[in-house]
Every structure is written in structure tokens, then in C-alpha cells.
Amino acid sequence: MAQMGFGFDDAASGEMHRLFFALWPDEALRPRIAQAAASIVSEHAPGGRALKPDKYHVTLQFLGDFRPLPPSLVDSAKAAAAAVRSPAFELSLDQVGSFRGANVWWLGSHRAPDALRTLFDTLGRSLAQHRVPVKSAASFVPHLTVQRDVRRHIPPTPVPALAWPVREFVLIDSQPGRGTPYEVIGRWPLSAGDQ
């Protein structure tokens, strides 16, 4: 994929790193999401392949792909995250949908909480203030991918709700070529008193 304009060499210079901020389900919620995803796949038969539960997340801000990963960028991203003040909130995963271009099925919320949008916006402003470029889409569509390479698509459809108490956000370093789970390289709490 394209470099981010930091002037690094091509593929010969190291492993690919995909860097992004995300909401990260805790270990109690992951199996419940996997069970919901399995039920959806069983009922709707989209084809494709299931995402492993250790990769479940909701992307907040995508920083891009890097080869190599610049330590100064990571430091700036962490400083930007540390400056974020945003309330904790409850996210209800209560609908399934799909993206045609990406051929994925996802779980999401029919009405995302205002605090999620606040977190997305606040983090985006802080990244800009810390001169950290982002590659996020123009519009924020919070979703948790559960199935890739699907052969059929589905409009947003209600499913039994999963309650997700969101109390933090994380910075993830993914190395796509290694096939290993995502590595959490930073965690930041949300404000408990502002719910």
C-alpha cells in the first residue's frame, strides 16, 4: 500500500505495520460477539470467512500502513491520545450489515451513542494538533467486522443486542504479513464520571 509521506524506503526496509486507534472488546465480550456472529452466519449464509475473535474491534482513527513503523509517529500518536478527554459510554451492537466494496459483514448500532462520535471527533482533533496524519474515511461508520470475503450482502438488519460498556480506547499495531493477533501498544481510559 502507499506510504504516508514520511520518506521511508520501499518493501525492503522492514515489515508492514498497520496502525489505528480502536475500541477493543474485553475478554468477556469477545466470545459473546463470536456466538452472535456464528448465529448470523448460520441464519443468513453470507459465505466468506469469519474474523477471529482476537481481532474484533471498532476502528476510530486509521493512521495508515508503514514500512518501517516510525517511532516518532508512535510517540506523537500516544501523546495525542493522552490529551483526549471523553466520557465512557454504552454501545449496543444491535444490527448486522455489510459493505459492498469491502465485501464484509459487520455488527453495529442502529443509533450510535453521541459519546462515540465525541470520542471520534476529539481524537481526530488531538491527532491533528499533534501533527499525526490520518487516513480515516470522510464519514465515520462505527462497525465491528465479523465476516470477510462475503458472497452476498445484507441491508442493516436488527439482531439481538449485545451491550458493550466502553471504558477505554486503544492504539493497535497490526502486522498483516505475520498473521498474528493485533498488538495493543497503548490504552487510554474514558472519563467514568461523565456518562
Automatic annotation (TrEMBL):
Motif (HXTX 2): 143-146
UniProt keyword annotations, A-Z: Hydrolase
Catalytic activity: a 3'-end 2',3'-cyclophospho-ribonucleotide-RNA + H2O = a 3'-end 2'-phospho-ribonucleotide-RNA + H(+)
Domain of life: Bacteria
Active site, renumbered: 57, 143
Short sequence motif HXTX 1: positions: 57-60
Record has Cell inner membrane as a keyword: no
Enzyme nomenclature, EC number: 3.1.4.58
Family note: Belongs to the 2H phosphoesterase superfamily. ThpR family.
Function: Hydrolyzes RNA 2',3'-cyclic phosphodiester to an RNA 2'-phosphomonoester.
NCBIfam families, per the entry: 2_5_ligase (TIGR02258)
HAMAP family: RNA_CPDase (MF_01940)
Protein name per its UniProtKB record: RNA 2',3'-cyclic phosphodiesterase
Protein encoded by which gene: thpR
